[in-house]
Design brief:
With 325 residues, this protein is of the alpha/beta class. The protein has 2 domains: 234 residues, Alpha-Beta Barrel (TIM Barrel), CATH 3.20.20.70; 69 residues, Non-ribosomal Peptide Synthetase Peptidyl Carrier Protein, Chain A (Orthogonal Bundle), CATH 1.10.1200.80. The protein is built from 15 helices and 9 strands. An 8-stranded parallel barrel has the order 1-2-4-5-6-7-8-9, surrounded by 6 helices. α1 links the parallel β1 and β2. The longest helix is centred in the C-terminal third of the chain and has 19 residues. The protein is globular. The N and C termini lie far apart (44 Å).
Length: 325
């Protein structure tokens, strides 16, 4: 129940959930080093892959140490998703993940991501086409439903399984909730209670600690946990969750010196792949996570997010090391 097809993932795997402009190869490799069992790329446009867009191709790149790694694709046309899966397979990931859950307006308006929750027959057709197009296991990431009045995940999960999907990640919110409100795992539990379900079900939504992960595991019976926003700038979350699940150990917060060292490594790797400007723009949203709990960090954060080059960022990090190292 715990693997992805014939890919071993451990008895209760922790996943780095795919996030745009966050889960690039540099961050995935760092999360892997702190205990993430499975990582998934940022979501990649099917049309971009077919047209050989440079940005889409870069998003597919990964290091061997990231395995098992999945490439996630999204799109609104069945034929395009099928062709994109063939392109993704050529990059030799361990599995392909289908994005049926992204709530972002620009993707939904084009018929991708969680828009498919409004056209479940098309979602199933798309899943079947991709499964047939690749020799790799195919997984899917989705949500409870479109809105509060249309939470059809129990039926959707069963139909995705019948379409050949090897495992399903479920975000415990509807599309209309976006990322607000409280995640409700009740229906994920209902999916697990369905006697017809044989494939792994991974839960996602508001897991930000070891005790929370344990609660979701025990209460709803999920086969793994996906960690998204709680991992932003906090790759240590995976080590913390595992320490708690293994023996109820609470790990201390990493010292500032370690945070700075990991962040420097993250920046360097990202700059190599994306260039200085793009890397620093994307990293702005992660600084708060890297230095959570540091007193008077706000003024340092402002300097970090406004730094125009690596030298400017390095100057702030050096100052932080002297103050708190």
């Amino acid at each position: 129940m715990h693997g992805i097809g014939n890919i071993a993932t451990g008895t209760f795997p922790l996943f780095l959930s795919p996030m745009e402009d966050v889960t690039d190869s540099s961050f995935r490799s760092i999360c892997k080093s702190f205990g993430a069992d499975v990582v998934i790329t940022e979501f990649i446009s099917a049309e971009g892959l077919i047209r050989e867009a440079v940005k889409s191709r870069i998003k597919m790149q990964f290091e061997e140490m990231e395995r098992p790694v999945g490439i996630q694709i999204f799109g609104s046309h069945v034929d395009s998703m099928k062709k994109a899966a063939e392109v993704a397979e050529a990059a030799n990931p361990d599995f392909i993940d289908l994005n049926f859950g992204c709530p972002v307006k620009k993707i939904v308006m084009k018929g991708g991501g969680s828009a498919l929750l409004q056209d479940v027959p098309k979602m199933i057709c798309m899943a079947e086409a991709v499964v047939k197009a690749t020799r790799l296991p195919v997984t899917a990431k989705t949500r409870l439903g479109w809105d509060e009045g249309h939470q059809e995940i129990v039926d959707i999960a069963e139909r995705l399984q019948d379409a050949g999907i090897s495992a399903i990640g479920i975000h415990a919110r509807t599309r209309s909730q976006l990322y607000g409100g409280k995640a409700d795992w009740t229906l994920i539990g209902k999916v697990k209670e369905n006697p017809r379900m044989k494939i792994p079900i991974w839960g996602n939504g508001d897991v930000d600690s070891g005790p929370k992960a344990e609660e979701m595991k025990n209460r709803y019976g999920v086969d793994g946990i996906m960690v998204g926003r709680a991992a932003m700038g906090n790759p240590w979350i995976f080590a913390e969750i595992k320490a708690w699940l293994d023996n109820h150990t609470i790990l201390p917060d990493p010292p500032v010196s370690e945070r700075i060292g990991v962040l420097r490594n993250h920046i360097r790797k990202s700059v190599i792949v994306k260039g200085e400007r793009s890397a620093l723009l994307e990293l702005r949203k992660l600084y708060a996570g890297y230095f959570k709990g540091i007193p008077d960090f706000k003024k340092h954060r402002m300097r970090l997010v406004t730094a125009s080059d690596f030298g400017g960022v390095e100057a702030v990090l050096t100052e932080l090391a002297a103050l708190y190292g």
